[in-house]
Amino acid sequence: MKRRTPVSEIMSSDIITLSKSDNLEKAEKLFKKHNIRHIPVVNGESIIGMLSYTDLLRISFADATEDEGNVDTIVYNMFTIEQVMTKKLVSVSSDTTIKEVAEILAKNEFHALPIVDKSLLVGIVTTTDLINYLLEQY
């Protein structure tokens, strides 16, 4: 296993994003369509927050039924992305080592880190990315 491998080796750089003016219904559709659990919220190319699928579940009944019901739509219309997203972000640069990223994720209660170089969002890394990297090493 390489000790100084940068996170840029395992991060996703084809990033699905939302803007704070998007609605939560759009967010849910993106989560399901792309089978992802975290979406950075951006203003231009700068990240301003992170929305997780868990954030949606906290305010809705999305996991209680597979039906596309009215309940979620009503609840989603009560909140904005800006109200639901995490605003206090921890981010790392693309040259941060995978070990350092693993340490940050292990110590915190979140499962994704935005990768930011010179104030621009360039990627995202998740605990799943880390697990897949470890599996490749064996």
TrEMBL record:
A matching Pfam family:
CBS
Q: Which residues form the CBS domain?
A: 11-68, 85-138
Q: Does this UniProt record's set of keywords contain Isomerase?
A: no
Coiled-coil annotated spans: none
Q: Which UniProt keywords apply?
A: CBS domain
Q: What name does UniProt use for this protein?
A: CBS domain-containing protein
Taxonomic source organism: Flavivirga algicola
